[in-house]
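Assess this:
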Amino acid sequence: MQINDLLRKDLMILDLQATEKEAAIDEMIGRLSEKNVISDKETYKEGIMQREAQTSTGLGDGVAMPHSKNKAVKEPAVLFAKSSKGVDYESLDGQPTHYLFMIAAPEGGNDLHLQVLASLSRKLVNPEVLEQLDQATTPEDVQTIFAESEEDTKEVTPSTDSDSANKKFVVAVTACPTGIAHTYMAEDALKRKADEMGVTIRVETNGSDGAKNQLTADEIRRADGVIIAADKKVELARFNGKHVLQRPVAEGINKAEELITKAMNQQAPVLRVDGDAVDNNASEEEGGSAWNTLYKDLMNGISHMLPFVVGGGIIMAISFMFERIPMDNNFLFDSFNTIGSSAFQFLIPILAGYIAYSIADRPGLLPGMTAGIMAVDSNAGFLGGLIGGFVAGYVMNLIKKSLRGVPKSFEGLKSILMYPVLGLLATGLLMFFIISPVFSTINTAMISFLENLGTGNAVLLGAVLGGMMAIDMGGPFNKAAYTFSIGIYTDTGDGSLMAAVMIGGMIPPLAIALATVLFKNKFTDVQKQSGLSNFVLGLSFITEGAIPFAAADPMRVIGSSVIGAAIGGGLSQLWNTAIPAPHGGIFVVGLGDNILLFLLALVIGTVISAIILGFWKPEVKNEVKV
């Protein structure tokens, strides 16, 4: 299989009309559907937009590579589109995009096409190929360019001759979540730049078809530095003791010279591995702030906690329905409530444990989970457990550093004896004497304050929580509001704030769906089709259904959603509604208090958001019919 087997002439669009990102995506998806490459436009677009939400595939230098490995794809294909006007594609360099390659890869099956797609990706970092594409006027011209460049990419491998002995030697790993395009573009960009700089490099790729060109132990040993250009987890322990530079995969493409320079000059933290623990002290080198590091650790705890919240919470909610059945021995209520309550007992220990795990790897899990249990037992609640998780992680890192000088004969005792005992003791003492007493007092005061809120204050709190749910639709504001309400619910059993956040999370997708019905001239055909699915997502309390719309038009979509969600959240508190379940949307509303008023608050917020969005959004012009 060659590149031109996938880069089909009948799919090419050499006069792309769209000038905005989503419109361009819709125009290309329409051609794929027309040529029977995909079976479902909506499903394929969902995959494309999910990838765009992670990082823009507008790579800079006028190139974009939207791609998805998707169940809607019937056969692998690449669509090439050329825009003379340029597309505002939110590219990493902020410049217009003129050359777009939409990659459609099927799920499962023979992965031979992935090798071809990797080869295509490598070609696009070659400036000569882009110059030739600028001159191309026919599909045959485009295929000729790639046929001629089929053998251009060369493998740069470390040599053993005398000339290379004096060269700097760098090893790298590239990886992106999808593993189709960015992985290989970063690989080739690093190789080309290293060749220009006179640096020998070996690059391992972690793509959809697994790890290729795997680095050997000898290569790692001899390397002056290591580059990890990746947006997903890669195996780091093998680089113990090396200077390791960790950056997003996009920087491997666009900042290859900077990365190679820092790696060969050892301007990166030294990776330390003690037993199962990896500690590279590289937060400042990962391109993120201290807040980003804290947020990553917090999200690790929350993501592991959520299955317990959803599973246990909904089963508990169902038990309340059985409680209303008059029976002498209500075994349905007893069994369901016991199951749900048992899962709920793990919420804070799991949260704290996996925050500590994110900070200190496996050694942090024991002290973190113990901190969570101690927070529960001392009534320090959700806040005490959250702080306990961070404390456990950082304490464990300090212990690991302090034990680096232990004689090698005792290395084996670190993981099985020293880390567990010292980590548990230090964290336990801090929890017992400081954290638990302090946060128990704070937790008691906060619960007392909430129980004594006047109507006006309760409405304001409900409005704030509802609005936060709609600000970033699954991001830190959304998670902060949700986890705060979960904490109150687990401590008190009061589901009033759960009603506010549930309304706030349901309104964005519902409002978008309603707007696509009421204001048809403001949305493309594809958006209108996608909007209908948001009725189901919204009713199910899945806020993320609104993300593709928010990504394409953030100010109008997020602005209107926040207004409606805040109004709905405030009304839920004004009318004393409550939902005794942390998830489920419309399917658990029947278990709450003041059900009709809850639904009325939801409808009012949804209608207000939909009307604001509809009037604010401009009409669609030059819509591409698909």
